[in-house]
Structure formats: C-alpha cells, structure tokens
UniProtKB/TrEMBL annotation:
Function: Responsible for synthesis of pseudouridine from uracil-65 in transfer RNAs.
Chemical reaction(s) catalysed: uridine(65) in tRNA = pseudouridine(65) in tRNA
Matching InterPro entries: PsdUridine_synth_cat_dom_sf, PsdUridine_synth_RluA-like_CS, PsdUridine_synth_RsuA/RluA, RluA_PseudoU_synthase
UniProt xrefs under Pfam families: PseudoU_synth_2
Name of the protein in question: tRNA pseudouridine synthase C
Enzyme superclass (EC): isomerase
Domain named Pseudouridine synthase RsuA/RluA-like: residues: 14-172
Stored Gene3D superfamilies: Pseudouridine synthase
Keywords assigned by UniProt, alphabetized: Isomerase, tRNA processing
EC number, as in UniProt: 5.4.99.26
Length: 245
C-alpha cells in the first residue's frame, strides 16, 4: 500500500510529515476497529524504527505532524510544547464573517477519549486561541434564514493544546468550522459536501515553528493544504477578493 504521508523534514532526530485528513495519528478508544495510523506509516518512513509523536492532529484535520526519532528528543519537544515554545498555525473556513482579528480566551472541559468516562465530571482548563481573518465571501445561496450565506477564511494560532480546541473555540464565538460534524452547522456542512463532492473538515495545520531541540536552530515547517481543501477556497475568489495566505 502507498504510504499516505509526505515527508516535509527529516534529520537524525526529527521527522515531520503531512498527514491527510481521515487518518488517525495512533490507536484510539474512539475507533477500536481502525487498522491504519499515521504512527505506523511514519515508522515505515523511519526505516521500520520506532518514532514518537510529539503532538496530535484530530482524525479529520490534515497538515503538519511532527515525530521525534528517539526518546530524549521526544522528551525535549514535550517540554517545549508545555512551555508554549512551539508555534502552530492552522487555516480554517468558518461560517459567517469574523472580526478582522481577535483572541478567544475560553476555558474548556476535558473530553475523555474513553466513552466510559464521558458521564463523569471532567476538569476545566484554560484555553486560548488567536485568530486573523484572511478573506471573506458572500454566496448567493439561502442556507439558513437569509438569502445569502457568508463565510470567512481564518488563520488560527492556538496558544494552548486542549482537545478539539480550535473547533470548540470557533463554535463558542458563533463561527463554527465548515465540515465539523460535532461542533458545526449541519446545513452548511451539507451544502459544502454537495457542492464540492466531499464532506471534509475545513481545518488544516499549515505551519509549525520551533527551536530544534538538539541543534538549537530555528525550524519553520510548513505544508500546503490538500487539493480538496484548496478547491473549496475557490469560493473566496468568486468575489474577486485576494486570499492573504
């Protein structure tokens, strides 16, 4: 089987890849029957040797995913993540016109992966996301109660790493991400799925900036969104607006 991961960067300590939407990073209680994981494909790219995921991407999210090639490097990267020294950048298409920029400072309750724990009280943790609007569009289609429908392309920068943070934060400010089955708007999701022939989550991890844990050099790892994501961005070109990527 063809390896679905694309190598972005590799050295003696790190392996960065582009993960496609729909692929789990590793085995999870959410889907016990899944047999394919980014972790196993990354191991193939590492000559069959073990790799250590240092962060995660949700299954429907595509983009930059970083692995350490040894335990000590994984430990150092984990400490850098906890200290807020790794900057992550995402692109998302959301419902409505967002403000030009803003900060979402809204604590989130933990979401356990194990369904058996979902009825129990979970801790609430601080969560902070910065966003910047890159483009807007207004389509001549009536999806809710208005004759037209508005959307924004936004750049999202999470400063904490809570589960589903970006999806939950965009829902909190009433600009849910298109294609989000759990936190989005069903009518808008269906419109995009029918128009573009796919129902993917319109969220992509496009950049990861960090200090190399061994050499100390500044690393800027980036990847373009998948072709299906880019095709959806056509809606922002119909009005003649330039996308500020």
């Amino acid at each position: 089987m063809l390896n679905p991961l694309t190598v972005i960067y590799r050295d003696s300590w790190l392996l960065a890849v582009h993960k496609p939407a729909g692929l789990l990073v590793h085995r999870s209680p959410i889907d016990k029957h899944e047999t394919e994981f980014a972790l196993q494909y990354a191991r193939e790219l590492n000559g069959g040797e073990h790799v250590y995921p240092v962060h995660r991407l949700d299954r429907p999210t595509s983009g930059v995913l970083l692995f350490a090639r040894d335990q000590e490097t994984a430990r150092r990267l984990g400490m850098a993540l906890m200290a807020g020294e790794v900057a992550k950048t995402y692109l998302a298409v959301v419902r409505g016109w967002t403000p030009e920029d803003g900060v979402i400072d809204y604590p989130l309750r933990d979401e356990p992966e194990d369904r058996r724990l979902k009825g129990r009280e979970q801790p609430v943790r601080e969560a902070l996301t910065r966003y910047r609007r890159l483009a807007t569009t207004e389509l001549p289609v009536a999806i809710e109660r208005y004759p037209t429908s508005r959307y924004s392309l936004v750049e999202l920068t999470p400063e904490t790493g809570r589960k589903h943070q970006l999806r939950r934060h965009m829902k909190h400010i009433n600009h849910p991400i298109i294609g989000d089955a759990n936190h989005g708007r069903g009518r808008h999701n269906r419109y995009f799925a029918e128009r573009f022939g796919q129902g993917r989550l319109m969220l992509a991890a496009t950049a990861l900036n960090l200090t190399h844990p061994v050499t100390g050099e500044l690393l800027s790892l980036s990847a373009e969104p998948e072709p299906g994501f880019i095709r959806v961005l056509e809606i922002f070109c119909e009005t003649g607006e330039e996308i500020g990527l």
